Amino acid sequence: MNKCELANSVKSSLDQYFKDLDGEPPHAIYDMVLSCIEKPLLEYVMQHTAGNQSKAAEILDINRNTLRKKLQQYNIE
């Protein structure tokens, strides 16, 4: 999947989200989308690196301490 396909998936999911609201006001969409994307991303990269946080942080291009904080946030070991 390339970047455009991922963007299209997000747009499609948001279209469905707004349809499902059925006129109700949306709330905290930014946090909802981030948590829906960030957790599986972290899980996948951690699995790909066999749990090596240094390699995972490098792949994600984030600081290792930031990665550790996010892993704790999502209860990922």
UniProtKB/TrEMBL annotation:
Pfam families for this protein: HTH_8
InterPro entries per UniProt: Fis_DNA-bd (IPR005412), Homeodomain-like_sf (IPR009057), HTH_Fis (IPR002197), Trans_regulatory_Fis (IPR050207)
DNA binding HTH domain segment(s): 37-74
Transit peptide listed as a keyword: no
UniProt keyword annotation of Protein biosynthesis present: no
UniProt keywords, alphabetically: DNA-binding
A GO MF term: sequence-specific DNA binding
GO biological process, any: regulation of DNA-templated transcription
Family affiliation: Belongs to the transcriptional regulatory Fis family.
PANTHER family tied to this protein: DNA-BINDING PROTEIN FIS
UniProt-recorded name of the protein: Putative Fis-like DNA-binding protein
Organism: mine drainage metagenome
